[in-house]
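User: Sequence in, structure out. Go.
Assistant: Echoing your sequence, followed by the structure tokens.
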Amino acid sequence: MKLKLLLISAFLTIGSVFSQTLQSPSEFLGYEIGARFTRHHKVVDYFKYVSSTLPNVKLEKYGETNEHRPLYLSYISSEENIKNLESIRKNNLVQTGIISGNSKNNKAIVWLSYNVHGNEASSTEAAMLTLYELVTKKKAYLENTIVIIDPAVNPDGRDRYVNWYNQVKSTPFNINQDAKEHAEPWPGGRPNHYLFDLNRDWAWATQVESAQRIKMYNKWMPQVHVDFHEQYINSPYYFAPAAEPFHEVISDWQREFQTEVGKNNAKYFDQEGWLYFTKESFDLLYPSYGDTYPTYMGAIGMTYEQAGHGMAGLGIKTDEGEVLTLKDRAIHHLTTGLSTVEISSKNAEKLNTEFRKFFDNNSLEYKSYVLKNENQDKTNRLKALLDTHEILYENTKSGIVKGYDYTTQKEGKMAISSTDLVIHTNQPKGKMVKVLFEPKVKLVDSLTYDITAWSLPYAHGFKAIASKTKVSSSTSKTTNVITNAIDKNAYAYISKWNSLDDATFLGALLQANITPRFSEKPFSIAGKSYKRGTLIILRNDNRDTAFDTKLISIANKHQRELAAVKTGFVSSGVDFGSYSVKPINHQKIAVLSGKGTSSLSFGEIWHFFETQLQYPITNVNTENFGFLDYSKYDVIIIPNGAYSKVLTKTTLEKVKKWTRSGGTLIAIGNALNSFADKKEFSLKKKISGDKIKDADLTPYAAKERKDVANLITGSIFKSTLDNTHPLAFGYGKEYFSLKLGSTSYEYLKDGNNVAYFDKEAKNVSGYAGSKAVKNVPKSILFAEEQIGSGSIIYMVDNPLFRSFWQNGKLFVANAVFLLNSDKLK
């Protein structure tokens, strides 16, 4: 007994020595937190230093960014808990049903995420302070709590901001809002390398940072998750509870504990006289945020927003005359972070009890979501997304399934086979399944912070049924590996065209100097029928002796099945020498970027071509666009943006001349404003029926709610397709589009209305204001205006939005590769 007491005393002494000798962030870095912004590598150095010094801190590298910066998680708890970390993790997963067992976890697991937006940079400074305070002054919290810290979710964006700021700031810093150090240049530090907003990417996991983080998140499934942000300089501090609307799967406990957390935070802010607000602006609906994704996974998911943002720098004078400093901002985030750990530690038992209850999914209305497998590429892409979130799926058994039909928006039925996909809700992540697959989101309030529709069957282009009874199923079958063989006697090789994977394959062929053709008309040959857009790779077009070897290698790599035929004489349709079987030449593509361009829209295009099509583009700065030699390019893409200073009358004349000579111009979203209602172009804006407006006597307090009648906030509409036009090859006769705004354009009177909303168009899912929705019928979605030998493609809705609306991406590939691509320029 005496020996045991001596050992305990020795351990306590060692722990005391560690805490006394541990350097604070300021001591380690050589400057006070708040005196300057800390570059990411120094933040990593501090976390490495603490983990190597203390036995109750563990650091784990979980990934790497596009710019090769490391991503780390720090685990902070008692020394005993750190020794048993793996056991605690598994016991927690037992509570969810992800792994089997009877153990119950009694430790609170709190995950703190910092700096998902790179220019909201105070939070990473706070992360270092929080780590230090937890292991020195707040060790009592750690006895029953595991704290996981991600100090910089977006280090590429952070360093972009910090490096810029350090280059331009005054010494001492200038608090005048007009100073250059308060005006970030395009594209700003908010997004990641590909200019994506990582706080909108949790559910879609299109970015490497998100995919790597989600893997770790699902490995742990914490009970509390906080995402630390900054808002604009005149809004002091926001913390939980969140604003309405709350998604209906959110439990009463999740709501209640948000309030308890908020009250605990408020206690500390009240003591200091710091301003804050709750229950406003930030709702819990869109599933791809750092607060909602954890919430739908059973956690108490929260956003904390400190005044500051990229505008604030080291210090700025607000409109109220207060000087807001980086030190202030970091201390506020430190305070809420510690407060959250404290209240979680005090309620560890209750957190775990209610966490277990969340994973009871018996009350969910729909028991199964069935998706028709008409396109294996689409099915594989959806499976990959579900695998990312560790959501289980199976294959259906042959028969008939009844339920809500996504295509008709009515009760219906669908014949199913053993290759169709079914996702059940009686699985651990059943509530997330409901959120991602539900046909319509239940909205208790039309004032929302983001899009209000995202249903995966629409986003991925599936015929689907939501069934209120569980559908019979069996374990999902593996996909067969495609292995093509060389046929030296082949007159041509044929490959289908109906998915993004086909477009990626085409891009690879062009880069290997293989010239394919595509058929504008359906045909049949050798007992098989082929649709419009089918790729035909003729031996006559490719006389390289290595042609067969290169083609087969590329096809096998991309898992494209080739059909070798020995003649160009078809059974029906057009022969391979027809003018309707057109060559596809190597397309040279320019994309506008820079001032005026939406950085997010440009990033979506950049990411699409570089990581999905894997096809080269040239990024052209808007400041140089007027002087560009357009003849060097076959395709010019103008992302969503405001171009009044870029697309001037002179520049538009040059663009039109280039188009007339065979170029393809693709304009997306608000870029259409530069062409609409100009006599040189056919595009016309639709005018609302309310031409004469009376004086607005709406009370001031009601104006915000009245104005939403004019908005469409990410709502799904069904469009009609002319799939005989190359822009719609690979699609059926209808397409569900995510409409992001209320601007509409008339049918082209002189052009091809390829995708359009008919006179009966209405929103299928999501919020569309009563006035805005009236302007959608009889308007275009995608249209082609032919000018001489070339085309302008108008894309009213952005098919690449956040890269998650998978079913729209082939339209972009069609516009690039199938229009005017037969012309050598």
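User: And one key feature?
Assistant: The mean pLDDT is 94.
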